[in-house]
């Protein structure tokens, strides 16, 4: 009878595809991840009854969230932790997003099978599924479903849980990148807030952001120094940057395009609104140096970075990155005139060379 449920047939094809890929570790780059998550969600939703009087729409996340409360034997501590982590994620605003985040976490932790098994033995929650329409509420379908989950759990999933800002809207994940930059007065990114997201609509010419060649107009700021910008209020990013002025910055960026060069589809509605409000706005394809064909200087095959030299400070012979802040403050307090230099990173040393005279500092 289980073979008559088409969703189980589709799940079987996804699981077999995972096995056939032969990958030791399954990451978000795997073409099988999104279809697998999508079909799992369909199965978890099928036959799910509405709330009392049909007024409240339930999603599978609601019974997952309630499951630890029905733990009479104290064996669901791991599930409680997972639920807490999901609820604490600031990038998730909906039950759909939280359910998807939980599924990805459960795949990473090989805990999806035990979660479903505990549901199977929690009658009060299992009653939320219509036995005539669902997989989870039907005993004949539950057994093959669990078998397929066991096979899937043999794969080692390593999915990026930080990449979750669009799970409320889509299973399709964007490309994310980290942008680290040195302390400066102005970064040179023009921002626009749109429905709780922070868009970079322009990278100003000759600014620090342009020199760093990481950010492109159209990218979305996901985090600033670990602070999520999901559901940001107008001016929030600017306020954070003002508080961090003079300190190293680490941005987590969501790229406007995917690895294949195509526009990240969940961004399309946002981009259309931006273009309506700013007809001159264009998605930035390349950094300015690439557009103009400028060649970055090289030495013996190594890239030379054009920077401004502000001075030096002695920090001793011990310490890690925690001494950087102290060193930055010391150099800034010297108030030395900046010098244009070329920064050469070698295997065991760093060489700073004056741009005008080629003299090594």
From TrEMBL:
It comes from the Eukaryota. PROSITE patterns: PDZ, RUN. Residues 186-243 form the PDZ domain. Transmembrane segments: none annotated. Residues 27-164 form the RUN domain. PANTHER family: FYVE AND COILED-COIL DOMAIN-CONTAINING PROTEIN 1, PDZ DOMAIN-CONTAINING PROTEIN. This is Tensin-like C1 domain-containing phosphatase. It comes from Pelobates cultripes (Western spadefoot toad).
């Amino acid at each position: 009878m289980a073979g008559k449920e088409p969703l189980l047939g589709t799940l079987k094809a996804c699981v077999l595809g995972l096995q056939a890929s032969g990958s030791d570790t399954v990451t978000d780059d795997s073409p099988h991840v999104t279809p697998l998550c999508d079909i799992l969600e369909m199965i978890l939703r099928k036959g799910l009854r509405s709330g009392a009087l049909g007024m409240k729409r339930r999603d599978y996340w609601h019974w997952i969230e309630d499951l630890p409360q029905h733990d009479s034997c104290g064996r669901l501590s791991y599930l409680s932790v997972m639920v807490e982590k999901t609820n604490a994620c600031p990038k998730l605003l909906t039950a759909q997003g939280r359910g998807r985040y939980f599924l990805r976490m459960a795949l990473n932790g090989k805990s999806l099978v035990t979660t479903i098994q505990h549901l199977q033995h929690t009658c009060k929650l299992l009653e939320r599924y219509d036995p005539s329409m669902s997989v989870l509420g039907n005993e004949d379908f539950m057994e093959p479903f669990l078998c397929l989950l066991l096979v899937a759990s043999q794969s080692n999933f390593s999915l990026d849980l930080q990449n979750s800002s669009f799970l409320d809207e889509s299973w399709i994940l964007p490309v994310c990148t980290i942008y680290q930059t040195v302390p400066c007065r102005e970064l040179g990114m023009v921002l626009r807030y749109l429905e709780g997201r922070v868009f970079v609509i322009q990278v100003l010419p000759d600014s620090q952001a342009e020199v760093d060649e990481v950010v492109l107009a159209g990218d979305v700021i996901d985090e600033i120094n670990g602070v999520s910008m999901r559901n940001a209020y107008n001016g929030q990013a600017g306020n954070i940057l003002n508080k961090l002025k003079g300190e190293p910055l680490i941005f987590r960026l969501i790229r406007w395009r995917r690895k294949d060069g195509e526009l990240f589809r969940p961004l399309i509605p946002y981009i259309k609104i931006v273009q309506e409000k700013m007809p001159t706005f264009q998605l930035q394809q390349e950094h300015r140096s690439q557009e103009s064909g400028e060649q970055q200087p090289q030495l013996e095959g190594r890239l030379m970075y054009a920077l401004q030299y502000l001075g030096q400070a002695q920090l001793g012979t011990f310490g890690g990155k925690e001494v950087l802040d102290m060193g930055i403050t010391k150099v800034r307090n010297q108030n030395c005139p900046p010098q244009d230099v070329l920064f050469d990173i070698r295997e065991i040393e760093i060489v700073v060379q004056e741009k005008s005279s080629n003299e090594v500092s």
